[in-house]
Amino acid sequence: MLAAVLTSILVFGSSVRNVSGDKSLCPDGWLLSNETSYCYLTSDRYMTFAEADGYCQSLGGSQAFMMNSYEFTFMKSYTQGMFAQPWLGVTRNLTNNKWYNNDGTTPYSSWWIAGEPSLNGDCVSFKSTDKQGIRATQCWSIQPVICKQMPALCPDPNKKYGGLHTRTGNITSPGYPVQYYNNLDCFYSITSPNNTYITLQLDPYLVENAIDYLTIYDGPNATYKSLGKATSSSKLTFESTSNSVSLVFHTDKTVTKKGWLLNWNAKAYTPNVNQSGNGGNFTSPNYPNDYDSYTEQMYYFSVADGFQVNVTIDDFLTENRFDVLEVYDNYTIPGVNMIANLTGDSIAPWNWLSQSSHVTMRFRTDGTNQKRGFHGYWTIQ
Length: 381
Ligand SMILES: *[C@@H]1O[C@H](CO)[C@@H](O)[C@H](O)[C@H]1NC(C)=O
Ligand SMILES: *[C@@H]1O[C@H](CO)[C@@H](O)[C@H](O)[C@H]1NC(C)=O
Ligand SMILES: *[C@@H]1O[C@H](CO)[C@@H](O)[C@H](O)[C@H]1NC(C)=O
Ligand SMILES: *[C@@H]1O[C@H](CO)[C@@H](O)[C@H](O)[C@H]1NC(C)=O
Ligand SMILES: *[C@@H]1O[C@H](CO)[C@@H](O)[C@H](O)[C@H]1NC(C)=O
Ligand SMILES: *[C@@H]1O[C@H](CO)[C@@H](O)[C@H](O)[C@H]1NC(C)=O
Ligand SMILES: *[C@@H]1O[C@H](CO)[C@@H](O)[C@H](O)[C@H]1NC(C)=O
Ligand SMILES: *[C@@H]1O[C@H](CO)[C@@H](O)[C@H](O)[C@H]1NC(C)=O
Ligand SMILES: *[C@@H]1O[C@H](CO)[C@@H](O)[C@H](O)[C@H]1NC(C)=O
Ligand SMILES: *[C@@H]1O[C@H](CO)[C@@H](O)[C@H](O)[C@H]1NC(C)=O
Known about the structure:
- By secondary structure, this protein is mostly beta strands.
- The protein folds into 3 domains: 2-149, Roll (Mannose-Binding Protein A, Chain A), CATH 3.10.100; 160-268, Sandwich (Jelly Rolls), CATH 2.60.120; 273-380, Spermadhesin, CUB domain (Jelly Rolls, Sandwich), CATH 2.60.120.290.
- It has helices spanning 2-16, 49-58, 69-79; strands at residues 31-32, 39-42, 62-63, 87-93, 98-101, 123-127, 133-137, 146-149, 160-162, 168-172, 185-191, 196-206, 213-217, 226-229, 237-239, 244-250, 259-268, 273-276, 279-283, 296-302, 309-317, 324-329, 338-342, 350-353, 358-364, 373-380.
- One 2-acetamido-2-deoxy-beta-D-glucopyranose is lined by residues 168-170, 261, 263.
């Protein structure tokens, strides 16, 4: 009878205890802590310490103990108003008379309530009223137990993003755009069509700078060369050398932010068009057939020092505003030397005479609406 009353109080207690946000990441009945990123459950059943770990394991977890001061803070709010004193996975080693968490680490001395650890038992329960903290308890007494498990916060590491027929996609950090979680090491792998390479752009990138970070690898797993770490302050774009790239998002045990949105695109390899001498003809890739999506094609025209380049475009059709031919005097890309940014259906005929003896052009296309592109020629002047 007493146990039944206690149990119903406890159940009521846990149903009003809402110390975190998204519960759906944890199994039914477990609570996700946004402080620790673990799922917690307090048993309805009362049991001896010896039964506690087996009980938690039967539910897919293990007995909770506190790994750091953030978890202690969580435990205080989680057990607030609980009348029982639930077991934690902490015991006294009878040989050396020291206290150990189940993983062999030592509980912080400040977590013991006043006068503890006493000789009153070799197991530990959490005192949830008044001054909260841990206390030595007889292992044979019966208490509820707090179980804990790591929720599936990262996507399945075997999930493949992209594929041989996909040229673009977005990936976001777990919990985006609300907040990501602590204690993560999430793995992502992207592949794109053969004969393409992958560009990555992070926007926004809101993480605890330098402490939580995304590392980019130039291949299908983290054994490949690192292309660098994203940092809030500078590096936010990356480019692979082949059609696969992988990422690891690491977070530490404290402080989370909104996270990141990654937009990736596969770009076709298009060797530079380099021409020199007295003149040449040039076209967009595949012309007069449609160019490809996500193309980036460079053109370099060079004449002898002291001469100029006379560029004429006699046919031009691209998706207005999105597929663009940039024309630069000399080599600068991109910069003050851009003299034209050509797009749409009303460009040709177009003619321009360079100031310097070099002309650089860059043709860039997006993922939708391919057209026939352009045709032109240049002569030495
Ligand atoms: C966890 O959520 C609570 C309530 O929504 C909030 O006050 C607290 O700042 C959050 N903690 C972290 C670490 O985000
Ligand atoms: C208790 O501590 C002693 C001495 O450090 C050690 O040899 C022994 O393995 C420990 N026992 C347990 C059950 O951890
Ligand atoms: C990726 O995210 C950007 C920015 O939010 C959005 O404009 C774009 O449509 C998204 N692309 C895909 C393939 O979801
Ligand atoms: C892409 O390349 C791989 C490895 O070289 C090859 O096995 C596969 O058939 C190619 N796929 C396509 C669609 O060309
Ligand atoms: C990494 O990828 C390469 C090539 O696919 C593979 O041979 C290697 O076994 C992978 N290594 C790991 C640790 O997954
Ligand atoms: C084309 O010219 C550019 C600029 O001079 C140079 O960087 C590049 O290596 C050249 N490429 C080829 C294939 O000659
Ligand atoms: C450019 O094309 C025209 C017409 O097709 C051709 O006569 C000329 O020889 C070409 N010039 C070069 C440098 O290839
Ligand atoms: C540049 O070439 C075009 C087409 O061949 C020609 O009409 C134009 O006069 C030339 N410009 C100069 C400055 O010679
Ligand atoms: C060229 O024009 C396009 C579309 O108007 C624009 O998105 C792009 O930023 C321009 N490029 C430069 C370098 O100004
Ligand atoms: C063209 O660019 C080269 C290399 O960046 C530079 O050395 C040269 O001074 C530039 N010439 C002109 C006319 O801007």
